[in-house]
Design goal:
alpha/beta, Alpha/beta knot
Amino acid sequence: MKKRFDILTIFPEALRPYLSSSLLGKAEEQGLVEFHCHQLRDWASDKHRRVDDETYGGGEGMVFKPEPLVAAIEALKKNYRRGRVIYLSPQGRLLTQAVVEELLGYDELMLVCGRYEGVDERVLDSWVDEEISLGDFMLCGGEAAALAVVESVTRLVPGVVGKASSLLDETFTHGFLEYPHYTRPEEFRGMKVPEVLLNGHHGEIKKWRRQEALKRSLKKRPDLLEKAKLGAEDLAFLKSLGWRPK
């Protein structure tokens, strides 16, 4: 069964061009995924198609009303087999590769994009399964975050990436960063490709890549190493670089 994404937004026209491009567009053409961008205003009940209102208790900004959102969620979820409703929010669970792999297990993902001050809390309490965040920063709305979820999950769908083996050594797959890459020319402005990559010895290349990935992680994201899947050889190498686990 193909994976289905439903994105609820007041700016569907901003998302469709991106979803139709590159790897995502090809995946949809091949029938591996479905992307549906829905205009939330289509579920508004008044002639002005209003989806927001002032917040109770006073304060700046507007809040998405519960009626259109709940009507949209219930209508779209009616034919779901095994789906999940996600609200993109800075208060949510951080989107990591582990979370992406978890979301891959659902047949349908409904992504609710907030705006303004957010949505009525009652919607989150009873109609949303979870909130997901890209990090500790603010965006104008949930659309960019929704695209991040769509792309990160879609590329793991079997058949989307040409060589499935290329996914095995990516950044975060083993809990740390990926090794560095080089291509032609062999020398560029005095900087040469590491000799080990030119000798054709696959065992040496594999070991070099593993160590370079660990070295890069230690330099750029040492926090990842505390949770990474490390063997005795990995630990010995890291300790030779001065790393000590907390």
